[in-house]
Design brief:
The complex is a heterotrimer. By secondary structure, chain B is α/β, with parallel strands linked by helices. Chain B contains 17 helices and 16 strands. In chain B, helix 7 runs parallel beside helix 9, helix 8 packs across helix 9 (238-253) and helix 16 (397-413) runs antiparallel to helix 17 (418-435). Chain B starts with 9 loop residues before the first helix and ends with a strand. Chain C has a two-stranded antiparallel sheet with strand order 1-2. Classes of the chains: A mainly alpha, B alpha/beta, C mainly alpha. Chains in contact: A-B, A-C, B-C.
Chain lengths: 277, 446, 310
């Protein structure tokens, strides 16, 4: 009898899911509410306190703060690096999984990617700083963008490989028999079909680039500073300015969230149904 | 791209520009505001005292016409920025805001231009504090020394003071303590009353060495001694034990339940919410504690001299020093020096205090400022600043601090006895320094 | 129509494609990752100090590694903690993320975007905010959790200050933070499954649980494995939570490997030792991944054996 076990399973999974949702929304609203409170009220954990715009004022209009510019920089860097890394990774992933590539090429590229991913990024930052300083690129958008690309490339590569290899081999063989070139297969068949995985990967790469702190801290100048670095300035020696941090977090979360939700709309289920035919 | 350094609200900026223009037009030939130095770039961190410092930068620019560009980083990232700048072929910054904990690393690396080389016979103005001689460095003995080369000028004077809550004291009839025993008895009374913790220590691993230093030195102990023939590890002496016993007593008997997890932010949080009756903390926190938006105890705190023990009174130096890197052009070095010289002036320092900063001069006590209740910390600050010490005056400070912190932290959370912790700390210091090539001597274990 | 070299235009275009598709990735790796990685490996054999503004490289061979294995007690405490941490959080995140993806798949047209949006919130917040936010919530004096406990009359619990609870608290925050990562990938994987193969699988199956075990999981296996591998790698790199919540204390109860490396490499400027630590950690992570993969292979073999027998 499947009824009871499915029933219990369903209840259990629903509890888990709604429980997590609550656990996310609860702290989130609480933190966002901090953006409108005075520091002392935040420190004493008051749930309802005097409302104030002070934190946003400090964040946006104080003398050393250029938060809107920082948000824009984050958008430029994250957007560009995501587009680049997705393109580069998808093309390479397709070739490595579906085409005849010498084994040693496959192993070297993937092995190196994995190795690179497993080492701590922090330790590479000073090398990158040196490299960019020597080529005069320090503080430019290019430096941060290309570093984010290499930083995200291993994961993007492996993820796209997983999604592309989930496609039925018959599909690709059929296309080849029809005389399609690899390029055509890639752009017209593979890419549209892995849309779901593509968007999920892109979302993650965007998030990683958007939230990056260590690389941005050292490779950007005042002009190109990104939002996470700006928000980090509120974690100070003697105190953490929770109010300004919450205000900064609220403002920096919105663009990322909107983009991802928009992206989700492009995912249609069951795309493969009938594709082989 | 854009070259912005500070952003004033539009109205104020227009007003300032208008005034400046008017001033310029109203002066005769030989304009007062002509800049005679190139613009210099300063690397500094975001902090509560940054605003007061910026006020001084503005003042400098108004008075001399010379410009300073500020690059404001998070505290956590400033050291890396400073390192990257000084290690490159050409420095990104002309003036560096260096925390006392990083001084030995930066000095010993030879990255800064000694001020005596930039201007013959340069010396700090009388009355400027040296915070345990941390403005000078002796390259031969590899440590801070008053007779060493002058390497920088303090930009913010941050030392520890004893804070206490006057309201709690009044309620229980307590008086300002002068010895450690008095602190402990006050603490017991406060703790028994139940509304606040008697004494809060910063015993978290990040903070404990810095927090323990005044106890150690005021009991007549030290971490180690730097001699001509090597290092003598002294932490596990009887004085050290007395100090640690006092410290652990205060931490565990009359404080919050998990002192081993209390870091600076937590300590200040407890002070500002009125949950701490007494604590030793940096004077830099004063501004926040007197700010009604951040503190529930405005006007209720006072600063005092850290208690005196067998070795006198001591305070850990946590100040910031402005250094001039060697890898920039001579013109910029001179420009940076000009600012540093200007900064030391008594009137500038007074203005600095009035803007909310902590002065780097010790002779402001007993003057116009002390009379003002808002600046009632000045006397205690000046007294403590005179006793400032650097517990670990060697380039390996950070490594030693990490190792010792673990052992001290374990003593506080009860994983080890004080004697065991000190012996372990001594062994760690010896291992580290021997590996670095020093000759190390040690006393017997406790 | 062929040309003199015996290749059709399509074949030539294909040859070009292989080069063009791989070149950007290889170039980017070569230019930006080769030097830093080799530099790291090299540095681990040296002791670097600075004198008179210049770096002094002192070749010490394997002595940094020797020091690491004999003297760095904090690092090894970190390794133990990180292993426990990694296994626990990845297990929870995989289970939770998969369940959430299934739930969203079954949700209606309003539930789906709503749930997806909510589930994605934790990874969209800047990590530093997550750390400071949970520090407030878990704080002993005024934290939200303790306020709720107080409401029910229970005493305050020192989530972050108690050495026995601290690591658990950090694991909780990490699970909260990173489950959306698994969720997103599982969702994409599930939605990409071939509907026809799913239907075919469902015929032989009698309960949802069986469908899960014998159809969904095997079909999703590549995605699951990759997600798990990257979660393991990322869990070894955990830093922000520890840095902001406990700084590795009290004692060594929340010391983790990446934090030790940060401290040695940056705070203490011991780049030689830090590099050695990174490389040793690399071996440890690789080890964990290999073991995890073996476990999965064994589980599959047992599952297919039991299928053969039934």
């Amino acid at each position: 009898m499947s009824g009871n076990r499915a029933g219990i399973g369903r209840v259990f999974s629903n509890t888990l899911v709604w429980g997590y949702a609550l656990l996310v929304l609860g702290p989130m609203t609480w933190v966002l509410s901090n953006a409108f409170k005075y520091q002392i009220d935040i420190l004493t954990g008051k749930v309802f306190a005097t409302f104030t715009w002070r934190n946003f004022e400090q964040l946006l209009f104080s003398r050393q703060s250029h938060f809107l510019d920082n948000l824009l920089n984050s958008a430029i860097v994250a957007g560009t690096s995501t587009v680049i890394v997705i393109l580069v990774a998808s093309m390479a992933a397709f070739t490595l999984t579906r085409l005849n590539v010498p084994k040693w090429v496959r192993w070297t590229v993937l092995g190196w990617a994995l190795l690179f991913q497993m080492l701590p990024t922090l330790t590479f930052v000073s090398s990158w700083y040196m490299m960019f300083k020597m080529t005069g690129l320090h503080g430019t958008y290019f430096a941060v963008i290309i570093t984010h690309v290499v930083f995200n490339l291993p994961m993007a590569l492996f993820l796209m490989m997983t999604f592309i290899s989930a496609l039925p081999q018959e599909l690709i063989q059929a296309a080849r028999m029809d005389g399609c070139s690899y390029g055509a297969i890639f752009w017209r068949i593979v890419m549209p079909l892995v849309r779901g995985g593509l968007i999920a990967t892109a979302a993650l790469m965007f998030i990683f680039s958007w939230s990056d702190f260590a690389i941005s801290l050292n490779l950007t100048s005042t002009d190109t500073m990104t939002a996470p670095v700006a928000i980090a300035t509120y974690a100070q020696e003697y105190e953490i300015r929770y109010g300004e941090m919450a205000a900064g977090a609220a403002m920096s979360m919105l663009p990322a969230l909107i983009l991802i939700l928009l992206g989700q709309k492009f995912v249609v289920r069951g795309l493969l149904a009938g594709a082989v035919k | 791209m854009f070259d912005q350094t500070k952003k004033l609200p539009k109205m104020t900026r227009r007003a300032v520009n208008g005034l400046a223009l008017a001033a310029l037009l109203s002066t005769s030939a030989g304009a007062v505001l002509a800049a005679d130095q190139p613009t210099i770039r300063l690397a500094i961190n975001q902090s509560p005292w940054l605003d007061s410092f910026i006020a001084m930068v503005d003042k400098y620019e108004d008075e001399t016409g010379n410009k300073i560009e500020l690059d404001v980083s998070p505290y956590a990232g400033l050291l890396e920025k400073v390192r990257n700048s000084v290690r490159g072929a050409e420095g990104e910054f002309d003036l560096l805001n260096i925390n006392s904990l990083w001084l030995s690393e930066i000095y010993s690396g030879g990255f800064l231009a000694p001020l005596g080389e930039l201007s013959d016979g340069y010396a700090l103005a009388d009355g400027v504090l040296t915070y345990g001689d941390t403005v000078s460095w002796n390259a031969d003995s590899n440590t801070f020394a008053a007779d060493g080369a002058l390497m920088g000028v303090p930009l913010n004077g941050n030392v520890q003071v004893l804070y206490y809550n006057t309201e709690i004291y009044a309620g229980l009839g307590l008086t300002e303590p002068t010895t450690w025993a008095e602190v402990q008895s006050n603490a017991d009374a406060i703790q028994a009353a139940g509304d606040a913790y008697g004494f809060v220590t910063r015993s978290g691993r990040k903070s404990i060495v810095y927090n323990f230093t005044p106890y150690l030195f005021s009991h007549g102990g030290s971490f180690f001694e730097v001699g001509a023939d090597g290092i003598n590890v002294t932490i596990n002496s009887s004085e050290g034990l007395a100090a640690l016993d006092t410290y652990v007593g205060l931490a565990t008997q009359s404080g919050p339940p998990s002192p081993g997890a209390v870091e600076q932010g937590d300590l200040i949080q407890l002070l500002s919410t009125g949950r701490a009756g007494q604590a030793i903390a940096v004077i830099g926190a004063w501004g926040g504690l007197e700010n009604p938006e951040k503190s529930a105890v405005v006007g209720k705190l006072n600063a005092a001299l850290i208690p005196t023990g067998a070795g006198g009174s001591a305070s850990s130096a946590g100040h910031w020093v402005g250094g001039i890197p060697a890898n920039i052009s001579p013109e910029r070095q001179q420009a940076a020096l000009a600012f540093l010289t200007w900064f030391q002036g008594k009137d500038v320092q007074t203005a600095y205090v009035q803007a909310g900063g902590v002065p780097v001069r010790g002779d402001l006590a007993g003057g116009a400022l002390s009379a003002n209740d808002t600046y009632r910390f000045i006397d205690a600050y000046s007294a403590n600043a005179a006793n400032a010490v650097m517990g670990l005056p060697v380039p390996e400070a950070s490594e030693i601090s990490s190792a010792v912190a673990l052992q001290l932290n374990r003593a506080v959370i009860g994983e080890m006895t004080s004697a065991e912790a000190l012996n372990a700390a001594a062994a760690d210091i010896a291992t580290i320094m021997e590996r670095e090539g020093y000759t190390v001597t040690r006393g017997d274990d406790l | 129509m062929t040309n003199m070299h015996g290749m059709t235009p399509t074949q030539r275009s294909n040859r070009r494609w292989i080069t063009v598709s791989l070149l950007p990735a290889i170039t980017i790796f070569a230019l930006l990752s080769a030097f830093p990685v080799f530099n790291l490996i090299g540095l681990s054999l040296f002791k670097v100090s600075w004198e008179e503004g210049k770096a002094v490289y002192d070749f010490v061979g394997l002595s940094n590694y020797k020091y690491l294995f004999t003297e760095e007690e904090i690092y090894w405490a970190g390794v133990r903690n990180t292993l426990v941490f990694s296994v626990t959080v990845v297990t929870f995140q995989m289970a939770l993320g998969f369940t959430m993806a299934l739930a969203v798949m079954r949700a209606g047209s309003i539930g789906r975007p709503l749930l997806t949006g909510v589930f994605l919130l934790p990874i969209v917040i800047p990590p530093i905010v997550i750390g400071t936010m949970w520090r407030l919530i878990l704080g002993r004096e005024f934290g939200l959790f303790n306020q709720i406990l107080d409401f029910f009359g229970a005493g305050p619990i020192d989530w972050l200050g108690n050495p026995d609870l601290a690591l658990g608290a950090i694991m909780f925050v990490d699970i909260w933070h990173w489950t959306p990562f698994v969720f997103l990938l599982m969702l994409a994987g599930l939605e990409g499954l071939d509907e026809e193969v799913l239907e075919a699988g469902r015929i032989d199956v009698r309960s949802f649980w069986q469908e899960l075990r014998h159809v969904l999981v095997p079909m999703m296996l590549p995605t699951i494995v990759i997600t798990m591998v990257f979660r393991i790698i990322l869990s070894f790199k955990v830093f922000d939570e520890v840095y902001l919540l406990t700084s590795g204390g009290p004692g060594t109860s929340t010391e983790v490997v990446n934090f030790s490396i940060y401290r040695v490499f940056f705070a203490q400027d011991r780049v030689g030792d830090g590099s050695a630590m990174s490389l040793v950690t690399l071996v440890a992570v690789a080890g964990v991944i290999v073991v995890a993969n073996l476990v999965i292979k064994l589980a599959r073999r047992r599952a297919s054996h039991s299928e053969d027998e039934s």
